Amino acid sequence: MHCFNQSPKLFGRKKFWIACVCLLGCQQLRAQNAVPLNDLSFFDNPSSNWKIVANAQADIVQDEVLTVKDGNGILVNLPGKKGAKDLFTKAVYGDADLELDYMMAKGSNSGIYLQGRYEIQLLDSWGTVNPKSGDNGGIYERWDDSKPEGQQGYDGHAPRQNASRAPGLWQHMKISFQAPRFDANGQKISNAKVIYVWLNGVLIQDNVELAGPTRGAFDTKEAATGPLRLQGDHGPVAFRNIRITSYDKPHPILSSLKYWVYKGGDIKGDDYKKLKPESEGTSPVLSSNQSKLSNDFLIRYTGNIQVKEAGEYAFKLSVPGGKGAFRINGADAVTLTENRGEGKVQLQPGDHPFELFYSKTVDWAKPALGLTVAGPGIREYLLSDANVSNNDPVDPILINATSNTILRSFSDLPGGIRVTHGVNVGSPELLHYTYDLDKGMIVEIWRGGFLDATPMWHDRGDGSSRPAGSVQYLGKPVPAIEKLSDANAAWALDTAGTGYRPKGYVLNADDVPAFKYIIYGSPVNDASSVMEKGQGIHREITVANTVDGLFYHLASGNIETLGNGLYAIDDKSYYIRLDDATGAKAIVRDAGGKQELIIPIQKKLTYSIIF
């Protein structure tokens, strides 16, 4: 079963990627516990400002306006003028992950207190260019009233970038928290830690140590556990899809470790049994350091792994520069793999014998054996020593848009769609978009960093780049303009028969592009500008010649009509706002199991994409 007779494949001309075992913060095998939102029974003595509803909608113009519809599935805080209180869970948590969607009213303020003591700030920070610790996704400051005025707040942690969405849009947050540790006498021996916070697809907090409770903690005495607390005395906010994963079970333990090191990494099957080991012995830990050889070696471990809980356990094995396998109870837990692999196995409580192999044959790769495990109530945990390989040996090639910036590249969209004639347009307001020259439409818009060009410029590259911020995709690319026999006619997926010809773009004095193309014999000018504070893109489409039956494709997906020319798209992911349609009326129609928002266009159309 241990077929080490094939050499690792080389990718590219120089080297292949060393992939490591995924450590804390990566996707793990675990059952997430959804918080039931049919009523408030999950929470401890909720005050009247907290309600369960079916729908929530915020006003994008008026401060702290959040309207709701009766039903269930969404938790809302409507604080009113006085008497509003925070909301606490009945259960208490130590190490835990929290994942949820939330919606801020305009100008609203709220917060998530881990263990009731450490606040992740929730705030309407839409349009903030340089966020601080008090902005959305920040770890709030600690506070000391004895310090001089202006210095009481300290030890706050601003988000890495502002990934916030507009009021009334659903935002998605993932938090991983490690509780403080205490010895047998109750003395703290290690601080609490926010392992990560992801906001709308962007890592905004990474491995932040918390020396003590933040301002507003329900008590200042730290403990191993505490309730989840949602702030309710500031502003309106809505929550849904709340999932809490508690990690309260003991880690698996390795014991009786023995190792053998053989010279020659390219060994077939069980041929190592015919060889005399270069070294052998017992070890307190799994490690590649047992080998005195830097290459062309095989290291074999045996031992026992003890688990306390029955269930499915996930293992990840890192064997850079070669191959490896991991077996429990004589069966493969991680099958023979190059560089890295993973697998799952059902285990009962008790000790289970295991066998691990690491065959290294690539001379320039550094030996670095890694093994992790995750299981029921167990956050992914490193079973080997800390000598594991980096996840990616290549420093990312990031492009910042300190001025209006344009870069051509391929762009990959969900569903395996590759835009081969994409133009990425970046702005110093940190609001960027990709324009598809093949279709005459914007396919993605994002806030934060501009581009990660690593896939395009590292080594041989593949010609693609990817957004370096919080991205909103705008649906499957289709031609922006189509000629329809009537408002119910199907929208074509390509420009065949339209006479479409892209004519590139023209830069204005500020280096902002206006895209040009011809369709149905008429020249079209397609210009976009960044809205104030980077709150979205203002679009102006001008058609030179009048063509009967022309329609413009504004959006597709789930569409809600909010009034005054405002539409919420894809379950309140972003807004389309009609600014000037020269009297034309937009149409929401069903099309192939989804909805489309289209509008007749004659000479000019202006609208905004807001998120």
TrEMBL record:
Region (Disordered), start-end ranges: 141-163
Keywords assigned by UniProt, alphabetized: Hydrolase
Pfam families xrefs: 3keto-disac_hyd (PF06439)
Gene Ontology molecular function: any one: hydrolase activity
Signal peptide bounds: none
SMART domains (UniProt xref): PA14
Superkingdom to which the source organism belongs: Bacteria
Domain PA14: residue ranges: 252-387
Descriptive protein name: Family 16 glycoside hydrolase
Organism: Mucilaginibacter angelicae
